[in-house]
Design goal:
Length: 315
Amino acid sequence: MRGSAGKRPVVILVLAVLAAVAATVVAAWSGGASAAPGGGGKIVAVGAESQYADVISQVGGKYVQTSAIMSNPNTDPHTFEASIAVAREVGNAQLVVQNGVGYDSFMDSIESATPASGRTVINVQQLLKLPDSTPNPHLWYDPATMPQVADAIAADLAAVQPSHKAYFAANAAAFKATLGKLTAAIASFKAAYGGTPVATTEPVADYLLTAVGADNLTPWPFQADIMNGVDPSPQNVALQRALFTGHKVKVFLYNQQVTDTLTESFITLADQNHIPVVGVYETMPEPGYDYQTWMLTEVQDLHKAVADKVSTEHL
């Protein structure tokens, strides 16, 4: 099971361990230093997911020491287990960026167990003013999300080191400027292929698909079941299969990080019906990508699938 409302990583939090870490963190912060325990005068920051850590790094530049909690694109994010090392990492951070919408609720538990008066938390769900009932938690796939996150990061870093406010603001502006290629690619696809019917396993890239004007024909209950680790109903499985056998879709997109026998059967069915397959990622592929190039590449892969019938299952 991945959760009952949106994608929720399966996390094991041992309270006794967190209590021990909390004591360590309190001791580390007790000196009241303006720079976190990382040393070197750098602000210590943590992104719950690698994509948020990447944006922190781009905005913070040389004045920030950044790490990501979930950063391995070759593993299932839903099997993530918080450890004492992760708890200490979060506890020592002055700035934390997390997704919210239940996707990384383990962060709330760690933050509660490792209180620190000098820590600021950017919850992206709250930043975007989204309700807890938001059905799709993959907020970073919405092109409108990261510009707001970058501005929030710049403001919070400046609150820690006011002398570098202009530096952080300039980096946030530069980050947003580099999203121009992504914005152009989205507009180009929408103009040329808006309304293209596609199928998915789960709503990892749904926000991006909406932005490019694609028409996702996979029933939402099917997507939600796959997202939450629930077996879809036979009726919805049949509807999904009919999208391929009836050649009703031009592309099949699936979560490359989370596959099972059902997903593999749909990949095979797509291949048999000459429907291109695109693998999308939940956490940022590393190395070789930053947030901008990752999103741009996924739009380009979708374009290749529709225009040239070329599959791209792995980045």
